[in-house]
Amino acid sequence: MATAYQNLSSYDPASVPDASEMKVGIVVSEWNSKITEALLKGAVDTLEKHGVKEENIVIGRVPGTFELTFGARQMAINKSLDAVITLGCVIRGDTPHFDYVCQGVTQGVTLLNTQFDIPFIFGVLTNDTMQQSIDRAGGVLGNKGDECAVTAIKMHFMRKKLIK
Questions:
Q1: Is 50 among the catalytic positions?
Q2: Could you count the other beta carbons within 10 Å of the beta carbon of residue 102?
């Protein structure tokens, strides 16, 4: 669904389970850090709002969006996590680099979801302009980080329901 039709930060808080027992990893790209740090703040604030303790939020930084997949995999292997959120921002330029990075990280995060028994949440903005990214990182369209945190919690609890 197009973000223009739904604010990324709008959700029913009552629909989100208590996450006080969760441990969540967040891998964030340093590229376009003005955007990715805003996404990170949104994700952390929302996780904490729903009970995740500060010490149970593991943050790792990678140089660029393409490296999110490796960082997320390493977190899953080396930490005992209930979910991993990937946060990045790719803005279209004049070369096909945008397409390769977006395709690679999308496929990489999808693959991680099939290889591990925890959810990996795709929080990569893929926009045409910096303004579109600003609008989705705490601007007029909300914060994709908020949405990713809610998704991580809900996916963790969906998994827990299925393995009972």
A1: no
A2: 17
